[in-house]
């Protein structure tokens, strides 16, 4: 059935197809039954109990509009966002492009979202009882030197409603954002967010894990430096990784020259390499959530074997449909808990 749905969706502009899918999932979320079961493959990570290790990556449901609909597809956890303090339109359209030949997607959305207050209201209205992550970012108009302010605003507003919070400093579509991944800028951000986390933990009498999302384009030296910062500042987890600026795997294909981050199948090997390198540096001191290019049980298992404890999917679901989630959740073999 999904092949027919995909044929229709792929006849539309990529962003229009996405918006239509979100609206359909909003309606599906109101159904009194699940579309697909939630496969039972439990694991414990960051002190949280996951029904299975397959999650929805951020970017699919930026405003938390369709949480209940996505929950009916079999995910073990869902991450919404990226959300910013203020609503923003993002980059000019068109800004999403399918690289059909490689089953990839290029986007330069630029954190388009309705703002953190709208997302919180949507989360409060949802009936989802699984693990929910909320991904936070900075507004484009906020100078990079004042980024901390935006992250603190979002952290304070979402803390009560999230099971974990992801700090996105790796989108390639917000000017200078990736500079926060390095050196003193990263240390300063993490020190202050950990202080905020401690205060909120005391206020709500509940500790919510703080996760950092990094880029797959880091050098080995940069990965080692990031890992050191993660451990020193006691960050609870890391998502490896975001979209890539590399076009090596799609060179010469239609739309490959478009600016933005590349996701989907072409990202698979690069993200697995990042996980492996990061795992070597971390040596089990905090968990890795593998994201980027997962398109089969084999590709997902490779990321688990490389050191990931959980997996996130988005782009491949667009190409293959929700049966991918079922296959991954039922067949991924987990061998450790962090």
Automatic annotation (TrEMBL):
<feature type="binding site">
    <location>
        <position position="82"/>
    </location>
    <ligand>
        <name>FMN</name>
    </ligand>
</feature>
<feature type="binding site">
    <location>
        <position position="168"/>
    </location>
    <ligand>
        <name>substrate</name>
    </ligand>
</feature>
<feature type="binding site">
    <location>
        <position position="293"/>
    </location>
    <ligand>
        <name>FMN</name>
    </ligand>
</feature>
<feature type="binding site">
    <location>
        <position position="264"/>
    </location>
    <ligand>
        <name>FMN</name>
    </ligand>
</feature>
<dbReference type="InterPro" id="IPR012135">
    <property type="entry name" value="Dihydroorotate_DH_1_2"/>
</dbReference>
<dbReference type="InterPro" id="IPR005719">
    <property type="entry name" value="Dihydroorotate_DH_2"/>
</dbReference>
<comment type="function">
    <text>Catalyzes the conversion of dihydroorotate to orotate with quinone as electron acceptor.</text>
</comment>
<keyword id="KW-0665">Pyrimidine biosynthesis</keyword>
<feature type="domain" description="Dihydroorotate dehydrogenase catalytic">
    <location>
        <begin position="43"/>
        <end position="332"/>
    </location>
</feature>
<keyword id="KW-0288">FMN</keyword>
<comment type="pathway">
    <text>Pyrimidine metabolism; UMP biosynthesis via de novo pathway; orotate from (S)-dihydroorotate (quinone route): step 1/1.</text>
</comment>
<feature type="binding site">
    <location>
        <position position="168"/>
    </location>
    <ligand>
        <name>FMN</name>
    </ligand>
</feature>
<dbReference type="GO" id="GO:0106430">
    <property type="term" value="F:dihydroorotate dehydrogenase (quinone) activity"/>
</dbReference>
<feature type="binding site">
    <location>
        <position position="241"/>
    </location>
    <ligand>
        <name>FMN</name>
    </ligand>
</feature>
<feature type="binding site">
    <location>
        <begin position="107"/>
        <end position="111"/>
    </location>
    <ligand>
        <name>substrate</name>
    </ligand>
</feature>
<dbReference type="Pfam" id="PF01180">
    <property type="entry name" value="DHO_dh"/>
</dbReference>
<feature type="binding site">
    <location>
        <begin position="314"/>
        <end position="315"/>
    </location>
    <ligand>
        <name>FMN</name>
    </ligand>
</feature>
<dbReference type="InterPro" id="IPR050074">
    <property type="entry name" value="DHO_dehydrogenase"/>
</dbReference>
<dbReference type="InterPro" id="IPR013785">
    <property type="entry name" value="Aldolase_TIM"/>
</dbReference>
<keyword id="KW-1003">Cell membrane</keyword>
<feature type="active site" description="Nucleophile">
    <location>
        <position position="171"/>
    </location>
</feature>
<feature type="binding site">
    <location>
        <begin position="58"/>
        <end position="62"/>
    </location>
    <ligand>
        <name>FMN</name>
    </ligand>
</feature>
<dbReference type="InterPro" id="IPR005720">
    <property type="entry name" value="Dihydroorotate_DH_cat"/>
</dbReference>
<keyword id="KW-0560">Oxidoreductase</keyword>
<keyword id="KW-0472">Membrane</keyword>
<feature type="binding site">
    <location>
        <position position="62"/>
    </location>
    <ligand>
        <name>substrate</name>
    </ligand>
</feature>
<feature type="binding site">
    <location>
        <position position="213"/>
    </location>
    <ligand>
        <name>FMN</name>
    </ligand>
</feature>
<keyword id="KW-0285">Flavoprotein</keyword>
<feature type="binding site">
    <location>
        <begin position="242"/>
        <end position="243"/>
    </location>
    <ligand>
        <name>substrate</name>
    </ligand>
</feature>
<comment type="similarity">
    <text>Belongs to the dihydroorotate dehydrogenase family. Type 2 subfamily.</text>
</comment>
<feature type="binding site">
    <location>
        <position position="135"/>
    </location>
    <ligand>
        <name>FMN</name>
    </ligand>
</feature>
<protein>
    <recommendedName>
        <fullName>Dihydroorotate dehydrogenase (quinone)</fullName>
        <ecNumber>1.3.5.2</ecNumber>
    </recommendedName>
</protein>
<comment type="subunit">
    <text>Monomer.</text>
</comment>
<feature type="binding site">
    <location>
        <position position="173"/>
    </location>
    <ligand>
        <name>substrate</name>
    </ligand>
</feature>
